[in-house]
Structures are given as C-alpha cells and as structure tokens.
Amino acid sequence: MNDQDPSTILIHHTYQAPAGFEAPQPPVYKASTVYFPSAAAMRARDWKSRAGYTYGLHGTPTTFLLEERMATLEGGLQTLLVPSGLAAITLVDMALLKSGDEVLIPDNVYGPSKALAAGELAGWGITHRLYDPMDPDSLAQAISPATKLVWLEVPGSITMEFPDLRALLTLAKARGVLTALDNTWGAGVAFNGFDLGGGIGADIVVQALTKYPSGGGDVLMGSVTTRNETLHLQLKYTHMRMGWGVGANDVELVLRSLPTIHVRYQAQDRAARALAQWWAGQPEIVQVLHPALPGSPGHAHWQATCSVAAGLFSVVFDERFATPQVDAFVDALRLFRIGSSWAGPVSLVVPYDLAPMRVRPAWRGTVVRFSIGFEAVGDLIADCTQALAALGA
Ligand SMILES: *Cc1c(COP(=O)(O)O)cnc(C)c1O
Known about the structure:
Elements (H helix, E strand, L loop, with lengths): L5 H6 L27 H6 L16 H14 L3 E5 L2 H12 L5 E5 L4 H13 L3 E5 L4 H7 L4 E7 L11 H10 L3 E5 L21 E5 L13 E5 L2 H14 L5 H10 L3 H20 L4 E5 L9 H7 L6 E6 L5 H10 L4 E2 L9 E5 L14 E5 L5 H12 L5
Parallel strand pairs: 2-3, 2-4, 4-5, 5-6, 10-11
Antiparallel strand pairs: 1-7, 6-7, 8-9, 9-12, 11-12
Helix pairs in contact: 3-9, 4-5, 4-8, 12-13
The structure holds pyridoxal-5'-phosphate.
The site of pyridoxal-5'-phosphate (PLP) has 14 residues, from helix 4.
C-alpha cells in the first residue's frame, strides 16, 4: 500500500472500527453502494432477503431496524418504510389495484387519499366509491365483484367520527376483500390494528411516522405493515420498482423518538381532553368532536376499542359566526401556530370548510381543528380565551 498515492490510501484506509460498541441509540448506516466480498456473493444475493444487503434503496441495518420496530409497535410481522404517510397510501393502492378494479374509501378519509383516487387511480382505469363509515350497511352495499380493496381510517379525518371498525372489517372479510387501515391516529398505541379482538383486524396497516413516531414536527415518513408474507412481498415489489427509499438521518430521528411514543401519546391525550372539555362549555361552539367525549360521533365505538386517544380534536363554531370571524379567532391565537400535522411539541390550529370535503357534511358552520403539543394546558386555555374576543361575539 505504501507506494499508493495519499488520496487513494485515504479512501481505501486500513483502519476498521472494532465491532461491539454499544450505546442507547443505534448506529446510523448510510449507503447507496453496498460492497460485496466477491462476484459470486453479488450474484448469489437476493435483494428481498434481510439476511444481507444489496443496495441502499433495498435496505440498510438502519432502515431494517426501524422496520422491525414499527412491525412490533403495530402488532405486525413485516414493515416497509416510505418517504411520507401519503406515500404509504399510494404504495398500497399501486401494489394492489389494477385497471378495472374498484377501491372503497370512507367519506371522511384523509383528504389526499380521495384526491389520489380521483386523479392517478382514475387515470389508470381504477374506480373508487365513497362509503359512510358510520353506517356498515353503506359499506355492504358498496362492495361489488370489482372491489379489491377497502380503506379504513379511525377516527375520521378532521370530523373525528369513530366507526365500528370491527363491523366494517368483518363485513369486508366476509366478502373476501382486502382491508387497509390508516392507523396514524392510533399510532400502534391506542389499539392493535391487526387484532381488535377475536382475531378481527386489517390486512395492511399504514401509518404516517411524520406524526407520533417522529413527534418532532421535523420528519416526513410512512410505514406499511403486514402480517402475511405473500402480501408483504407484493407490496415490496412495488416499493422496489417505485424507488421509494428513505434517508438514514430521517430514520435516525424516528428511532430516537420511538422509545417515548407511549408517554408522549398519553401526555398529549390528557392535555387535549382537558382542553376539549373546556371548549364543550363555551357558548360560541355547537359541538366538540373528540371521540373520548360523550356526545361525539361514535363515542361508544371508541370506548369499546380504546382507553386512550390522540391529542387532537375539532370544534364546530355556531353558524352565526361567518368564516372571516372564525379566521380572526384563529389569527388571534398566540401559542397555537397555524399549520398542518400533529403530535409535535407545538400546538397547532387549522380552520376547515367541510362542504367541499364531504359528500354529506354533517355540520354547518366552520370547523377548527386543534392538535395539542406540550405547552401547559392552563396557558393553552388562556390563549383560546383571549382569542375568542376576536370573534366579535
Ligand atoms: C398526516 C396523515 C397522513 C399523511 O402523512 P404525511 O407524512 O404528511 O404524508 C396520512 N394519513 C393520516 C390519517 C394523516 O394524519
């Protein structure tokens, strides 16, 4: 080696870090290129196997670690990581649906899932139909021989209706249709999406790791978890062909936050329920939408399924307040920042108009969604109190 140029020696260096270093956080392995010891080893290696490594896009020790931990959290066996929660939804649709198939989507689903169905899926000859998740008959009637996938989400996005998940899953199973659950709200903490009791569960569970698993408001990632090797492989082929890799540093952030997911979930739950209860006593609003509050749609189903809830709820302002007045309230908030997403350290607020978002909007009046961070509840209540003055009530 001594006759080599210093630039070459620096690249092909002899020092090897010894194995056996242990610390609370796992090491972060970064790679596009992965070395093989021989041509034969390269020819023999299977990119689908976790027994070895082929290329960064197909997995590293760092991504495999988070995949294993997410599978454990969700109660599944295999997990794939994708660059966002929305990409997790896209992966499932692309892997399981082909021209002539139909997918069923709850009317109160995470909005971009509907947009994907109306956009790309429609363009590829895949039809979709919306069902009312609060009425299992609506799902029963929507299932046809073309139905290849039923999406479920608990609770509904923004309006927070908690469906009878067991009834919906049982119905789809009885008709032999695959089910995919968006478990971002439950986060693998509130209930087991693969087993809601009596072995009833979804075939596929997706989650936006952007929310609770990250917990920082600074990472975008999604997971697709299964409990069936054949189904996992079907998803894995599409995952590989689409080239949906995730960055090692983003995985590192999620691995660092994951050990505290249960305490963060519970702390935000307590704070959100206290604030939701305070809102229930305010005369400016007609409804608080939080599944753990009696009177919220599907409360009994929440009670039968969970004992905890994500730190997230909506309020419906009385119709006498026009949208600009509600916006003035939102603008007057000081601790709550205006922004999407949830489960981060900062409390967030978003105003919504339901009419364009639902086939059957259940409420009139402007809806405002709050996600609760880690500020003291008393300060958040004081912030809402002072901002209500801006409503001009
Ligand atoms: C946030 C969210 C998503 C999308 O996650 P991104 O990482 O923002 O793409 C999907 N489903 C639900 C229920 C969500 O709350």
